[in-house]
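Researcher: Checking consistency across runs. Here is Flagellar protein FlgN again:
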Amino acid sequence: MPQSVITALEELISIQQQLIVYADEKKTILIDRRIDDLNELVQQEARLVRQLNQADDKREQAVTALMGAHPSLRFHEFIDRLPDEIARKNIQSRMKTLQELLVELQAKNKINEQLLKDAMEFVHHMIEEVTRSRQQQYNYQSPHGQQTPPAGGTGFFDTKA
């Protein structure tokens, strides 16, 4: 019975490791600003997250089956009381590994989130620079009178050389 929990945890660990690889790739893609590659990676990541959810459902079912006679115990308490020491240590080891991977993935996702936020701020800044109307005149103006700006748009692309 404990083997089904161990197998489910191993599957979760494998998927988490793949997500960490994707997070590293995503960081490189964000830094290089390769949008098409980012879109493709996000789709692959979404598929992997669906697999993660399915694997977690399997883990839940395995834990429920294993703890069937002891529903009032918490999982950690139940594992501590397992008579099979090898199975107990295997489960505890894999749970610890899974927790470490989760922490690592969260840290990488936080970095990627900041990179994405910075990229969005850069894009918004560039859009403002390109589309904003001129706040100041770039040419010399006579101090005797204000010239009225030409009719129509006065954005960056509307100026003459």
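Researcher: Does this match what you'd expect to see?
Model: One thing to look at in this run: The CA atoms of residues 104 and 118 lie 21 Å apart.
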